[in-house]
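tool_call predict_complex ligand=tryptophan
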Amino acid sequence: MKKRILTGDRPSGRLHLGHFVGSLANRVKLQDEYEQYVLIADVQALTDNFAHPQIVADSVKELVLDYVAVGLDPTKTTFVVQSKIPAIAELTVFYLNLVSLNRVLRNPTVKAEIEQKGFGDSVPAGFAMYPVSQAADITAFAADLVPVGDDQLPMIEQTREIVRKFNSLYGDVLKEPKALVGEYPRLVGLDGKAKMSKSLGNCIFLADSEEEVKKKVMSMYTDPNRIRPTDAGTVEGNPVFIYHDAFNPNKDEVEDLKRRYRKGEVGDVEVKQKLAIAINVLLEPMRLRRQTLEASPEKIEAILAEGVKKGRLVSEEVLEQVKTAMKINYKF
Ligand code: TRP
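tool_result ok
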């Protein structure tokens, strides 16, 4: 039997090339090897978007469009909307007894996020506790493996601790998941900042049109010390070349551009035009798949309904076992 893997995203906007490089491309590969679940974590998204529920609601369908666009196949990958799985909420409540307040607040991922979002002392309790809810996500589907980047490793550690605590108290019920640490490279932003991110406004979205991609690429940050095309330029750390390495499959062309750039024999315009072409070649089939699905909203609904149905079946079974082990599976 195939091992089960689970990943998740918070629906809070469209996906961009940073997501593609960081996790989506990997998921497309993993769906052939594993039984893959992708959780659309709308409840988690509400922990920091509780004042903007419309953004979350709109993003659920956007996510499905993005997923199918990149090549995730609903017959191989199950998309599950978190709020439609009551077992996750129930498990979260039980697990909250198995972890100390201090331990949750020490979770490095959450700590960093609290700081980054400037919550200070008014961090919502729901946000601070989301690692516990994430433990419920993972265990509700009895996932064997969770593909993660470095930043999410503390989440898996926390989940494993909760599972061990549960099993030692109530019996061997929950599956202890392992992290599947792969290569999850981080993509620099169009502006050269460390990370492509919606809040920094430095993204190319998977749903961007050909024209938008061209415009964004032409405005990209390059070597700030290079004034004229005849100046010798620096390739290393230059976002335009980082993108060429990531998205241009024509390695000879990339090497030629680098060589000429270093010698001051090529202008930014040519380098960028070729990059825009490469990115558009990558995105074009995604646009087509997206358009096809967008044209039949009933298919999107069907994909979501099917995922929820399957997700409920699996998670209800785990919840039953959990309640039995906790002696609260009353028969009335
Ligand atoms: N915390 C993850 C993120 O912010 C999303 C997520 C929710 C998740 N539940 C999950 C990831 C379960 C892996 C497993 O991207």
